[in-house]
Specification:
Elements: H1 39-42, H2 44-52, H3 67-78
Helix pairs in contact: 2-3
Length: 79
């Protein structure tokens, strides 16, 4: 994997990194529906461990329709 480049000033100039071997564009760090969370990329276990000890949880930028955000909220509520 190559590091994701800094955002371009103009959206028209935005580029995703490409695989050096085959030239296919690499996906940004997103999770599609029905995909599993990978600890190396999404830190699911790390996030759950952090939420278990939190006093306040701010959840921003999600509709709470996928597993990890829902689970984080459930764990935080049980504290």
């Amino acid at each position: 994997l190559q590091p994701v480049p800094s955002p371009a000033l103009d959206v028209k100039n935005e580029r995703l990194p490409r695989c050096g071997a085959c030239g296919i564009r690499q996906r940004p760090n997103i999770l599609m529906f029905d995909e599993s969370y990978n600890e190396a990329f999404y830190k699911q276990r790390s996030a759950l461990a952090a939420v278990q000890g939190c006093d306040v949880l701010l959840v921003i930028g999600t509709q709470l329709t996928t597993g990890l955000p829902q689970e984080l909220l459930r764990v935080a509520r049980s504290n």
